[in-house]
Amino acid sequence: MRSRKTLPVAALRAFEAAARHGQISRAADELGVTHGAVSRHVSHLEDFVGVPLFEGARNRPQLTAEGRVFGAALTGAFDQIEDALRVIGRGDSDILDVACLSTFAMRWLIPRLHDFTARHPRYDVRLATDDRQAQVQVDVRILVLPPQAHLPATCTRLFTEKLALVVAPSLASVRKEDVLALPRLETRTRPDVWREWVSLTGRGIGDATTTRIFDHYHMTIEAALNSLGIAIAPWHLVAGDVASGRLVAPFGLVDSNYVYVVEVARPGRTKAGHFVKWLEECVRDLETQRTGA
């Protein structure tokens, strides 16, 4: 195998352009060199590989079979290099890719994003919402860690999740004990939340007479808002609705011990630092809203 130190990079680049365009003159225009310079690079590369890459008349050369295979391979290789450069260079761009759970995005992050964009108008925030947390390439990822989980060095702690039983005011006019007999709203993405709440509060709720199950938390919360029953919801998702009187939390709050953190893919990037600092300010506002509720 030849050493990479001996690879004729300029000749490879010239031949790739000529093979892709099918014309040496167009390759010369793209590279900003003369027709003769591209021809010399191609001839040098043919000597290097030991096979002809072009054939036919000098003014209308055609790729050989080997030239077509080699040209396609070089185009793919250069495309991969360009993709890699885009990935590692995105940290200094104005695009800020953020990933989080869909309900967190809909009910907590998106309603606040106008404040971030007002402070930092240069950034174009793009959200990736995937409840399976697929490993897409992003700048910032908001994660939920289970109780007692180790906090990775790349993560900054935001807050500990609190749970609340919430109900629409129209259903909350009955006694507290009777509220627990109302239809129970559940979420497929967190099927054990009612058991969590019972364990954390020590309250007995018995068997639900009616249970309505929804695919995502934002649907469950919407059902509670529309008087379809009672739900156990993370406080940060419903705090605004409780503050406005659209929901009531008759049994208060309890720590679930799940921890929300923000992970930065490439620490030290200015745009990620701005976003993390802004998230921390939003969390302080959430804490103020909780203690004042």
Strand content: 15-25%
Described by the principal axes of the CA atoms, the overall outline is elongated
Number of helices: 10
Number of strands: 10
Corresponding CATH superfamily of the largest domain: Periplasmic binding protein-like II
Give the SSE order as H and E letters.
HHHEEHEHEEEHEHEHEHEH
CATH class of the largest domain: Alpha Beta
- Fraction in helix: 40-55%
- Biggest β-sheet, characterized? 8 strands, mixed
Structure classification:
alpha/beta
- Report the CATH architecture of the largest domain: 3-Layer(aba) Sandwich
**Uncertain regions: pLDDT < 50 for 5+ in a row?**
none
Structural domains: how many = 3
Please, what is the average pLDDT?
87
What is the terminal separation in angstroms?
Answer: 71 Å
Keywords:
single chain; 293 residues; alpha/beta; Arc Repressor Mutant, subunit A; D-Maltodextrin-Binding Protein, domain 2; 3 domains; two-stranded antiparallel ribbon; 10 helices; 10 strands; 45% helix; 20% strand; elongated
